[in-house]
Amino acid sequence: MIASVTGTIGQAGLDRVTVVVGGVGLLVHTTPAAAAASHRGDEVTLATSLVVREDSLTLFGFLTTDERDMFETVQSVSGVGPRIALAMLSVMGPDDLAAALSAGDTKALTTVPGIGVKSAQRLVLELKDKVAGMPRPTTATTPGSAAVTTDGWRDQVAEALVGLGWNAKQAGEAVERVAVTAPADAEIAAYLRLALRELRR
């Protein structure tokens, strides 16, 4: 089990980063917000979870240990794999997700692509008591984040949303709504959080 990695960001994509550790580049899948906040040369520590399959070893990384713990917890429910677990954290974050599970808020859970009413009900049934006893957040080292000075953020945010499971039309509409009210020169991660908030309405 690889519990964490510490190194330098080599490359950052929309939902993944390469962390260079001792000369070896580790491909780490993460939330779009975490990837958007990562820049080449940043020194980072990511809490990680290694998903082992017959034909692959996939490393998932998180800025906080509570994100990682929630990622692993929701996968204990039948039908929830790492992709959906990552989408849940990308859309809601660990605190909102824990609150929704504790309160039995299936409506909030179904805002996540891939989670229907039955899946949301099953998540609440199996995890309501478990998440209530989970420890509060422990923050890992957060990479720096640069401001965006052009409208290039629109394509990046829309692509990240499509990667999470929304269709291009939904992603485009959310981006346009954000563009009307978002402050100029904000960070990519901030634009993404605003777009996710629009899609949850």
Structural account:
By secondary structure, this protein is α+β, with helices and mostly antiparallel strands. The protein is 48% helix and 19% strand. The protein has 8 helices and 5 strands; from the N terminus they run βββαββααααααα. It has helices at 32-36, 65-74, 82-103, 106-109, 117-132, 153-164, 168-181, 188-200; strands spanning 4-12, 16-21, 24-29, 43-53, 56-62. A 5-stranded mixed barrel has the order 1-2-3-5-4. A hairpin with a 2-residue loop joins strand 2 and strand 3 (24-29). It is globular. The termini are far apart. Mean pLDDT is 85; it is low at 137-150.
Break the fold down into its secondary structure elements and pairings.
Blueprint lengths: L3 E9 L3 E6 L2 E6 L2 H5 L6 E11 L2 E7 L2 H10 L7 H22 L2 H4 L7 H16 L20 H12 L3 H14 L6 H13 L1
Parallel strand pairs: 3-5
Antiparallel strand pairs: 1-2, 1-4, 2-3, 4-5
Total count of helical runs of at least 4 residues: 8
Q: How would you classify the helix and strand content by structural class?
A: alpha+beta
List unreliable stretches of 5+ residues: 137-150
Rg computed from alpha carbons, rounded to a whole number of angstroms: 17 Å
